[in-house]
Amino acid sequence: MSGEPIKPRGDAVSTKAGGAVPQAGASTSEDIAAFVARARALSPHAPGAKGRLIFALDATLSRQPTWDMACALQADMFRETAALGSLDIRLVYYRGYNECRATGWISDSARLATLMSKIDCRGGDTQIGKVLSEARREAVASGVRAVVFVGDAMEENVDELCAKAGELGMLKVPVFLFQEGHDAVAEKAFREIARLTGGAWCRFDPGAAAQLRELLRAAAAYAAGGREALLKLAGSVSGAAMLIGQMK
């Protein structure tokens, strides 16, 4: 895949060199109480509220085949929620050296596909901490129902990631982590992030489009319709059953 990366816009997150998502500073107990109260006041799970899902992808060089697969499958997330209400997706990705970017909120699968087609994967280390920080910021600013992360590695301080995950758990924003492959370090970290946020961890095999499709559909159903929608889908979709079986 070739093409230019998404350029930072007014609604994009890119305020540091290399397009890095701003890191959250140290939080006092008052700060935490304030952002929890604000997030709850937004009531993203209220009846009739628009579902908002952060779709985060590892776009380092080894991920190109999965990126292409995600491009082909992302429309299924929108289709899954058609009967439940509208769904907005914010794409967050990292790649290269200290590059982590986010789009604005997107409610159209064609537009998301166009944006993703312009992004090529580049070598670099994981930046999962920035993804979690961005999810926290959006949860406070506008409400987020769920975060989906697709990746195969974790090269960061796991305790720092868990601290960020704990804040998302306080905001009741579950993280669904879909791991490609069998990296043991990544699995341990992903499982703990899922536990701390009330989300779920699932593995899918390299190149297994059908597996990933089911998992993405299930996460989208939760984002649009909450636990009730996920429970309903679990009756016919194994990916939904896998998620609901882990969620608190």
Automatic annotation (TrEMBL):
**Extent of Basic and acidic residues compositional bias:** 1-10
Region of interest (Disordered), ranges: 1-24
- InterPro entries of this UniProt entry? vWFA_dom_sf
What is the protein's given name?
VWA domain-containing protein
Q: Name the source organism.
A: Bradyrhizobium stylosanthis
The top of its lineage is: Bacteria, Pseudomonadati, Pseudomonadota, Alphaproteobacteria, Hyphomicrobiales
